[in-house]
């Protein structure tokens, strides 16, 4: 039996900049659901399914890589499926329903729409297939979820807001880039504003939806900096959006702070180079490992908590090496539901 620890090794070694998209494509094409996978699910080998909301973000590529590593150690077969876009809620539901019909041993899903996924969860319950939700601690409200595994989104946003106050010395103009409307966006943006509103001399002069995409973050920030040249900091509710903002500012020869949430390897590269200011490291690779570890405990008949909270840490150039090495990873802890506010 494996124990909790600093798993996964160096983030730099796990994934190099420019290769994450290729890894995503390779992962999906090599592990796509097919007759061979269905046969494995019906044999003695455990077949587990990982269902992200999309693979356009390096965050989910890292989760899949971590999950595959531990699954290989336990001899589990892995199926990975994801919609072409994170806004394609219906396709994610259909994919999960198909996985249920294939009688996989367990399903781990990260629903972008926690209400839409409810029908698929109910079908899994009827088929006696355990369902694990990853990257979130908010109840889906429908069906029975075996375990929720993820970090507290609102508390992570609090850390970035407090860092914003430090950077601006309690005074300045900021812009917020929202993701796709969802629990994730509500908690990350709501949590950030919750702290910022306590500082009347910090003004949110612009807020726009960038759909978790780097390209949208770039184009929106360019327009915003033209309309509000006094913007000093951009907060992206995901790393990809804030990287887009950083590129926009660089191309316009403007010095601004850019901060986000995820802690992806590509973001770490940008922090090292000075392009991006900071991120909330959410340990996506280790989260993927944790998901499969918890599935294994369930298969072995061990008790697992309903909510398991994974750690987060503010990552800047000063502690970048420690984060990359895994030294900042701490043992996930039994927690409680994160109620959307």
Automatic annotation (TrEMBL):
Signal peptide: 1-40
Recorded GO MF terms: carbohydrate binding
InterPro entries per UniProt: Peripla_BP_I (IPR028082), SBP_2_dom (IPR025997)
Domain of life: Bacteria
Domain Periplasmic binding protein, residue spans: 48-302
Location relative to the cell: Cell envelope
Family annotation (Pfam families): Peripla_BP_4
Any one GO cellular component localisation term in the record: cell envelope
Keyword Signal included in the entry's annotation: yes
Similarity section: Belongs to the bacterial solute-binding protein 2 family.
Protein name: Putative sugar ABC transporter periplasmic protein
Provenance organism: Alicyclobacillus acidocaldarius (strain Tc-4-1) (Bacillus acidocaldarius)
